[in-house]
Design brief:
It is a single chain. With 425 residues, this protein is of the alpha/beta class. The chain is 49% helix and 13% strand. The chain contains 20 helices and 13 strands. The chain has a 6-stranded parallel beta sheet, sandwiched between helices. A 5-stranded parallel beta sheet has the order 2-3-1-4-5, sandwiched between helices. It is elongated and about 90 Å long. The model has no long low-confidence stretch (mean pLDDT 90).
Length: 425
Amino acid sequence: MNAFIVLEGLDGTGKSTQLRLLAEALRSKGERVFCDTEPTAAETGKLLRRILAGEVESSAWGKAALFFADRVNQNTDPENGIRRHLLDGDTVLLDRYYFSTFAYQGYETSLDWTMDLHYGCPVLARPDLVLFLTMEPEACLRRITEHRTGQQREIYETAEQLTRVRAQFHSMFEALGRRENIVLIDAAGTVEEVHARIMEAVETRLNPKKKLVLFDFDGTLADNSEGIFNSIRYALGKMEIPVPDGAVLRTFIGPSLFDSFRRVFGGSDAEAERFVTLYREYFAPTGKNQARIYPGIPRVLQALRADGYRVAVCSSKPIEFVTSIAKNKGIHDLFDAFFCPGFAMSASDKTGFIREGMRHFGVTQEETLMIGDTRFDIEAAKNAGVQSLGVRYGFAAENELETAGADLFADDAAGIYEAVTGKTL
């Protein structure tokens, strides 16, 4: 499954019990499961527990900031953090997450501030499913009283506070809309009845998740048309070949330069190879530096990796150029791998590189998605037996992606994230 599932709800709704039962059920099906809770066992979490117990005073702003810091540590711990477990293929179950901060501290301080703080942080993993256990506050208080005989209640465990927070949870969930995958679970009834409701929600609301997302480079991640066109003009000038119009130049973006030259100008293999050599003579020192990363792409890459996806480049552009541009534009470290030809190769068909990516990460066809801006990307995806997503802001001709049979479409970077995850940024 390799999913991130959060259980939320008022104290007394049985989150801890239901999290344990869900973990046992998933493990019985062969899933590797990691469970955690908030506040954590870190020093930030220990301080928060003392604040919640009323032992240490803190403002609502201080509590919100501490929860955020505790959450960042919880996500980024290199050995046992949420992101580490997701990247290792585990399913993560968490008792409370940033939704509690929105509902509790968000309304005591500023909901906009707490939401901007969390959604603007690229290292916080986004849940695949949020299960909100809902129950009348009076019933919650009865359970708290029954199970904590002689123990001091936390500062939020009063009828007034529980009623207020429950209303805040519901209004906050309504405001989030499609930004999160949230299911309300009736927590009234026996433990077994609630568990059955949770299992039904998990089975019906968690679609098979893509584990590997492959991105084409030119026209999908970066607009490098200026550098490409200038390099073509340079090479053709050296060869004393007239430069075609812009519509023809656009067709050079996607397939290999060798194949594009033969398709447009004919000629011998030797002439095509000379064209490629001259093209690189300009592109290597100058043309590659004229690339522009499309707006929103870095944030999408960060969000996908935070969600536990493997993210890689699959391009017919030589890997030496791809990695150089990626480093120059500050996005190199947002990828887990690069599947591209070397200088000595000529590869218009990316099918082999898609398959190489699947072998490298040990994923199936159903767990892989290829994203690109031309029919070459869509056709390669079909040849490899994987799903495809066509981006309409690149270099495809009108209806090219639809005719090629893309499975999904996106009009901008945010649309990519929504198409892949079903959530909005």
